[in-house]
From TrEMBL:
It holds the Pfam family Iron_permease. This is Low affinity Fe/Cu permease. Residues 76-103 form a coiled coil. The chain crosses the membrane at residues 21-43, 49-68.
C-alpha cells in the first residue's frame, strides 16, 4: 500500500507512536524527570516547581491516551482483517464468524460458550486433526434431530400397532 495516501495526521501519529514507544523517548522522559528533580534546590522546591512537572505530565498523559487509542484501533482493525482472510481461505472454517467484532458483548459471550463446548468435544476426540466448526456442529445437530425424529416416528408406529392388535 502506498504511503503517499496518508494524511499529515496519519503520518505524524505513526511517527509519534513509534517514537514514544522507543528507548530514546524513555531516556528523554527520564532525563527530564532527573533534571526537574535536581532543579528543586535551585527553585527552593516551590509550588511553581511542583506545578511544572505536574502540569507537564498531565498534558502528556492526556495526549498519549488518544495516541495510544488510535494506534490500538489501527492494530485491531489490521488484525481483524488478517483473521478474516485466514477464515475465508480455510475451507474448514466457518465464514459466519467473520466480522464478529460488531456483535454485542452478550452475543460474543454466547459464542464464547459455544466455542468452549466445541473445545470440550475436541478434547474427547482421539484424533487431534478432527475439525469442529459451527457448520459441522449444525450438521451434527441436524443429523441427531433426524435420527431422533425417525426413532420417534418408529415408536409411534409401534404404539399404533399395539393399539390395533388389542
Amino acid at each position: 500500500m502506498a504511503n503517499k495516501d496518508k494524511s499529515i495526521f496519519e503520518k505524524f501519529s505513526d511517527w509519534a507512536t513509534k517514537f514514544t514507544g522507543s528507548s530514546y523517548a524513555f531516556l528523554g522522559a527520564t532525563a527530564i524527570v532527573v533534571a526537574w528533580a535536581f532543579s528543586g534546590p535551585v527553585f527552593h522546591y516551590s509550588e511553581t516547581w511542583q506545578l511544572v512537572i505536574n502540569t507537564g505530565t498531565t498534558i502528556i498523559t492526556f495526549l498519549m491516551v488518544f495516541l495510544i487509542q488510535k494506534a490500538q484501533n489501527k492494530d485491531s482493525k489490521a488484525i481483524q482483517i488478517k483473521l478474516n482472510e485466514l477464515l475465508a481461505a480455510n475451507e474448514k472454517a466457518s465464514n459466519r464468524i467473520v466480522d464478529i467484532e460488531d456483535l454485542t458483548e452478550k452475543e460474543l459471550d454466547q459464542l464464547h460458550c459455544y466455542y468452549e463446548k466445541l473445545a470440550d468435544f475436541a478434547e474427547e476426540d482421539n484424533d487431534i486433526h478432527t475439525s469442529h466448526s459451527i457448520d459441522a456442529a449444525k450438521r451434527n445437530q441436524s443429523y441427531k434431530h433426524d435420527v431422533f425424529k425417525r426413532k420417534h416416528e418408529e415408536w409411534l408406529q409401534k404404539q399404533e400397532q399395539k393399539k390395533g392388535s388389542q
